From TrEMBL:
The keyword Protein transport does not apply. The chain crosses the membrane at residues 20-42, 49-71, 83-105, 112-130, 142-169, 181-202, 214-238, 245-263. Coiled coil: none annotated. The keyword Transit peptide does not apply. Its main location: membrane. The lineage of its organism: Bacteria, Pseudomonadati, Pseudomonadota, Gammaproteobacteria, Chromatiales. This is Probable membrane transporter protein. It is found in: Cell membrane; Membrane.
Length: 264
C-alpha cells in the first residue's frame, strides 16, 4: 500500500475515532481495532501478532483521542469528579492486569472476545434509565466495577467507555455527564494499557519495523493527529444532542461491529 494512501486511511480512522470519543465517551477502539486488522493484513503483518498489535496500537491512540474529548467536557463542567476518582482507580489497576492477560491469548480468541464484549454493552444501553442524580456510587462498588471494565478494556484495545458509560448511567448519572466522566477515565486507563502492551510485545521478532512492542507508531501517530481535533469538536456537539438519541446510536454501533467480528 502506498504511503500516502496509508496515511489518508489512518487520518480518516482518527477522525472517526475522535468523533465517537467526543459524542459517546468511548475511546474509539471499536473503530480503530477492526480497521487496523484489515490494514495490517494488507501490509503483510503476520496474523499471529496482528490482533495484539491492533489492540496495543488502539490503546495508544485512545490516550490522544480521549484527552481532547475529556478536556472539552471538563471545561464545560460535565465531568463528575467523585465518579472519575473512584471508577478511574479501578480502571487503571484493571488495565495493568488486562494487558498482561492479553499477551497470553491466541489472536483468534482475542478477536472473538472483542466481538462478544461489544455486544455485551447493547442491553445495558437500551435498559430504561434510572432516575438521574449527581454524585458517585459507593466507593467499593465503583472500584470493583472499574477493575473489571479496565481488565477487559486493556485486553481488547477499547477505551472502556462501551461499558463505563452504561455503568455510570445505571448509577444515576445523566447521559451527558456519564459520557464526559467516561472520557476522563479513559485517559489513564489507555495510558496504562498501552505501556503494558509495549512491555508484553517487547523484542518479538514477528513485529514490523516501526513497532515498539505491540504498538505500531505509524498508525498511532496518523490516527492520533486527526482524533485530537475531531474529539474536541464532537464533545461540544454532544451537549446539543438529545441523551436518548446518543444511547440508541451507541447501541447500534455496538451491534454492527460486534456481529462483524464474531461472524468474520
Amino acid at each position: 500500500m502506498a504511503v500516502t494512501a496509508q496515511l489518508l486511511i489512518y487520518l480518516t480512522a482518527g477522525a472517526g475515532a475522535g468523533t465517537a470519543a467526543g459524542l459517546l465517551g468511548i475511546g474509539g477502539g471499536v473503530i480503530v481495532v477492526p480497521l487496523l486488522l484489515v490494514l495490517f493484513g494488507l501490509e503483510g503483518i503476520e496474523a499471529s501478532v496482528a490482533m495484539h498489535l491492533a489492540v496495543g496500537t488502539s490503546l495508544g491512540t485512545i490516550v490522544f483521542t480521549t484527552l481532547g474529548s475529556a478536556l472539552s467536557h471538563y471545561r464545560l463542567g460535565a465531568v463528575e469528579l467523585p465518579a472519575f476518582r473512584r471508577l478511574g482507580l479501578g480502571l487503571v489497576a484493571g488495565a495493568a492486569a488486562g494487558a498482561a492477560l492479553a499477551g497470553l491469548l491466541p489472536a483468534e480468541a482475542l478477536k472473538r472476545l472483542f466481538g462478544a464484549f461489544l455486544l455485551l454493552g447493547v442491553p445495558l444501553m437500551l435498559l430504561k434509565p434510572v432516575p438521574e442524580r449527581h454524585g458517585a456510587g459507593r466507593p467499593a462498588g465503583m472500584l470493583a466495577a472499574g477493575g473489571g471494565i479496565g481488565t477487559l478494556s486493556a485486553m481488547l484495545g477499547v477505551g472502556g467507555g462501551i461499558l463505563a458509560v452504561p455503568y455510570l448511567i445505571r448509577q444515576g448519572l445523566p447521559m451527558h455527564r456519564a459520557v464526559a466522566t467516561s472520557a476522563a477515565c479513559m485517559v489513564p486507563l489507555a495510558t496504562c494499557g498501552a505501556l503494558g502492551f509495549i512491555a508484553a510485545g517487547w523484542g518479538d521478532p514477528r513485529l514490523p519495523a516501526g513497532a515498539t512492542g505491540f504498538v505500531y507508531w505509524p498508525a498511532l501517530l496518523g490516527i492520533a493527529a486527526a482524533s485530537l481535533v475531531a474529539s474536541s469538536a464532537a464533545a461540544r456537539l454532544a451537549h446539543r444532542v438529545p441523551a436518548r438519541l446518543l444511547q440508541r446510536l451507541f447501541a447500534l454501533l455496538l451491534v454492527v461491529v460486534g456481529l462483524r467480528l464474531l461472524l468474520s
